[in-house]
């Protein structure tokens, strides 16, 4: 991964920065639709590293003030905060949504999952049984189906996390996380930081991911694997 201030290729090998969705709105449209500058910055935040996209998402989703619910919310689901829910999306029994959350179209959320923080979920996603999602940016066609905790992370398109996949997002000493860029550890400025998981990544069941690690597009893990270092494609 280069240390150049360009699109973070550890997330996608094909998508340009202007097409990256923040709150399900491409960066190129944010200036017109939200007043937030696109491409080079979102709310005056430079997009240099993958974790900058997470901060941009936090800023945008936290700014929402009105509910937009086009999908189906089951009476046994609980929503506390502002939500945008796209058409065709089903919020199943036992779901607890806390904080501002954006969910795209044709998603299946639940049963019995917990979504919190300033989280954005794309179209055609499945967040399932006993899953906790906290303060994440999740792109379309991604599945986190069973028994997982994903916090302060960015997940690309068509990611499939095996049951029990867990990210760690807090150092024992409470200091900022650092991430390897061009052979140098870079301070992310984040005390809470999970993982950067690229397009098409598949994890085996019970995968554990150290904080600040990057899984490059189309990489995989085996069942029970512990990801201690960035996982780069061998192609």
Q: How would you portray this structure in words?
A:
The protein has 235 residues and is mostly beta strands. It has a domain at 69-227: Hexapeptide repeat proteins (UDP N-Acetylglucosamine Acyltransferase, domain 1, 3 Solenoid). Helix content is 9%, strand content 32%. The protein is built from 2 helices and 29 strands. It has helices at 27-34, 50-62; strands at 21-22, 25-26, 41-42, 45-46, 68-69, 72-73, 78-80, 83-85, 90-91, 96-98, 101-103, 108-109, 114-116, 119-121, 126-129, 132-134, 137-138, 143-146, 149-151, 154-155, 160-161, 166-167, 178-181, 184-187, 195-197, 202-203, 208-209, 213-215, 226-227. The strands form 7 sheets. It has an 8-stranded parallel sheet with strand order 5-8-11-14-17-20-25-28. The longest helix has 13 residues, at 50-62. It starts with 20 loop residues before the first strand and ends in an 8-residue tail after the last strand.
Radius of gyration: 17 Å
Main structural class = mainly beta
Strand order of the largest sheet: 5-8-11-14-17-20-25-28
Proportion of residues in β-strands: 25-35%
Q: What is the level 1 CATH name of the domain at 69-227?
A: Mainly Beta
Largest sheet: 8 strands, parallel
CATH topology of the domain at 69-227: UDP N-Acetylglucosamine Acyltransferase, domain 1
The residue ranges in which pLDDT falls below 50 over 5 or more consecutive positions are 1-7, 34-43
Roughly how many Å apart are the termini?
Answer: 14 Å
Number of helices: 2
Tell me which CATH architecture of the domain at 69-227 applies here.
3 Solenoid
Could you estimate the helical fraction of the residues in percent?
Answer: under 10%
Multimerization status = single chain
| Mean pLDDT metric | 89
Net shape:
globular
What's the total count of β strands? 29
CATH homologous superfamily caption of the domain at 69-227:
Hexapeptide repeat proteins
């Amino acid at each position: 991964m280069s240390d150049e201030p360009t699109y973070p290729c550890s997330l996608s090998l094909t998508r340009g920065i202007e097409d990256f969705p923040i709150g399900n709105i491409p960066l190129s449209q944010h200036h017109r639709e939200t007043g937030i500058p696109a491409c080079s910055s979102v709310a005056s935040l430079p997009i240099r590293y993958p974790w900058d996209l997470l901060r941009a998402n936090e800023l945008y989703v936290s700014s929402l003030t009105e509910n937009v619910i086009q999908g189906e919310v089951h009476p046994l689901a609980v929503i506390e905060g502002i939500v945008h829910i796209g058409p065709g999306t089903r919020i199943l029994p036992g779901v607890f949504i806390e904080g501002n959350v954006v969910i795209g179209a044709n998603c299946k959320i639940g049963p019995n999952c917990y979504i919190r923080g300033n989280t954005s979920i794309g179209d055609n996603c499945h967040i399932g049984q006993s899953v906790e999602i906290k303060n994440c940016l999740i792109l379309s066609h991604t599945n986190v189906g069973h028994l997982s905790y994903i916090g302060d992370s960015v997940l690309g398109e068509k990611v499939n996390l095996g049951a029990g996949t867990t990210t760690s997002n807090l150092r024992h000493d409470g200091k900022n996380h650092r991430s390897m860029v061009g052979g140098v550890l870079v301070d992310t400025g984040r005390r809470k930081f999970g993982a950067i998981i690229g397009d098409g990544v598949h994890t085996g069941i019970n995968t554990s991911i150290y904080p600040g690690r990057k899984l490059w597009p189309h990489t995989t893990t085996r069942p029970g694997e512990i990801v201690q270092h960035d996982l780069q494609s061998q192609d």
